[in-house]
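anyone else get weird line breaks when pasting these?? whatever heres mine. first is seq + tokens for prot A
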Amino acid sequence: MSTAIIDDAPFGRFHKKMFLLTSGGQFIDGYLLSIIGVVVLGMSKDLGMTASEEGLVGAAALVGLFIGGLIFGRLTDRIGRQLLFTLHFIAIAVASIASTFVTDPTQVVLLRVVIGIALGADYAIGSSLLSEWLPRTQRGRVMGMLIMAWFVGATAAYLVGYALISLLGDEAWRWALGSAAVPAIIFTLARIGTPESPRWLINRGRADEAHAVLRRVYGDAATPEAIGELASDEQARGIGVFDVFRGDYLKRMVFVCLFWLLQIVPLFAIYSFGPTILEAFKLSGGNASIIGSALISLLFLLGCVPALRLIETRGRRPLVVWSFALMTVPLAVLGFAPSAPVGVVLVCFCAYALFSGGPSILEFIYPTELFPTEIRATAVGIGTAVSRVGAAIGTYLLPIGLDRIGVGATMLIMAAITLVGFVVSAAMAPETRGRRLVDVSGGAAVPQPAETTRAS
């Protein structure tokens, strides 16, 4: 059985450790991108920010994610996963501490861009490294769980922000932005000594190093025969960066970019300005909107739980198609009935959060499964970059939209974006459940939508 040493290995302590280390990047990402929504009102008052400047602050990290994904995705494929797995967290820690001393909006924007670049790097580095270590029976579930760390980080941001505002008032925003340095430092230290991906090592002709790494992780199971099987699967095939934009890989790249972008634009806008949106629906009252956002964040987390089961029982394709369809409904209700009773508004936000679990967990599954080792991190980086362009535009325009066209029209635009996501997924989403990474990423054809629709 080819590549049994990785694809058919039992899921053990090492895999759990790798997941926890990788999830640290998503925790910090969720924390940093959500904390800005909690403190933007106090920051705006203290720094005298306009609505446009608020949008720039919210979008700045997303612009950085675009840059970081493009640059570090390709760099990760060239020089390896492990070397970069630690270094970028140092930049996050330094920029977070510097955020406590800013004196004008421009400084905040620049620091948020730096933070975003580091976060974009982590998307490509962490997800590629983790996916290349996981057994195939657990790959979808474990990769999907990464997004849960994002929601945990987002929830933590709301709770920390609420606590700091309650204690310190409007000045709390400085401490809240600086608080991200704590988990960044912790995960920097924890990631030291992480092993390199043996798939990448073999792909680069470094079979002896791959053997040493596998012996370190799997012991006697790392036999010469097992290494030979892995080498046969992961030998360099002359695939280069430009192959991402050719043939079947181009089709996969288009799908990944579109589904990720169309899912993330409304989600990031809601997350970045959750308190502001709830205030527009007359759900303010002191810090009540922050607590409401924390509860919505928890529901986003809970929405991932059934999706993690369905990803392995029903498959990737039906999950992404039906999730987009169901996500459209509550956004449309909010758009057509912006003056609905408080209970209706909360139910709609909760329903959207729960239904979004499917596309959310697939953010890390599809990009890592559909591309081979030579270009896996590059593809993740491109997907991250494209999705963040849309997210940055949406996040920038959301406060302006609330101010100029109202909350109803803004929600209808989000519903339309989500509906397009349903159409794209129904037309293009492949099925990759239960297959070896080498097969699904290019060693064998991926089932086309029509085939997977009949199977589902």
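and prot B, same format (seq, then tokens)
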Amino acid sequence: MGDSRFIDAAERRARIGVRHRLAGSARAGSAAEVGDALVALHGTDPASVFLAVAARLAGGVEPVGALERALYEDGTLVRMHGMRHTLFVFPASLAAAVQASTTRAAAARERTTLLKHLTAGSDFDEAWLAETERLVLAELAARGEATGAELGTAVPRLRSTYVYGPGTRQEGTQSVASRVLRVLGMEGRIVRGRPQGTWTSSRFRWAVAEAHPEQDPAEARAELLRHWLGACGPATEADLTWWTGWKVTDVRKALVAVGALPVTVDEGTGFVLPDDLGAVPEPEPWAALLPALDPTAMGWQGRDWYLDPAHRAALYDRSGNIGPTVWWNGRIVGGWAQRPDGAVVHRLLADVGADAERAIGAEAARLAEWVGDVRVTPRFRTPLERELGGG
């Protein structure tokens, strides 16, 4: 390993400035370009997807309309479960690879768990579940799309409840609807469409999904890893195992399949694609206000090269979810929040200088302008965000 190329933290930060479309000259002209650049946008909090795209769009591109067209009209982006059982927005071109590499196995476990809970806590069985799913799919085929509440009215079985964890400390009543729709979504049989309400809403309509072409799981893992390394390399084996949620052996096989090359990073050994050993010039100075769960902030398990460990307690919740962050030249230097009156406020946790403060202030003003009258509160709140946002 002594002869491997060394990629220091400064060059890694330069890479994300350009490849993650954060430097001013690298900003994208469409939401689909942002999706392609980042591979996966965390979709657990719907507002975060819009905020992540908005931070990376060139001037003159309206973020909400651009992303809604990509998701609900052009179909270039799709919302689906992916790594670590998490909801993401992916480029539609990667949906089959995500499904085969990651979601299919998770969906099988989810179905097994649902059947176990149904049969233990109610009189329902596998045949009852299959008929319920058939009725849901038939209703969606007839309607085109429907909310969970509308489906519950049309398919009364969905309004049923069952006892979860009977006889245990976790015992409670759960809705059949939420679990059935989740399983069908993870299996790629239905897909989330346009929500009710504003772009911050998670009350999605459902529609029958287009079938994904079948892919070999190993080939799909190689395809997904190739795209991710192109966006986020270099990355360590620990980064890759954490991000994908795959077994270490599967990560190693995928690295071999894409011909990944070892390089040296501060943490030890990282990997890049075989054509990615060249030096990356540092872009012009850039500032960004990124949302909670932003894919850049959540891209790697090892984060010391862009985040001062002393700032973790202020910026993360107890489950490891990062809140809204302020960036300067590839480093997290603070956090931000929106107050109830709509003001976007931030606090710097490091001395960045007057030029950086002006650039960060300009980004805060740009964010406040396009958010307008909408109020954004992260689903997973962090200490600094709570303090700045007024609780």
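btw re prot B: Residues 1-106+215-391 form one domain. The chain has 14 helices and 15 strands.
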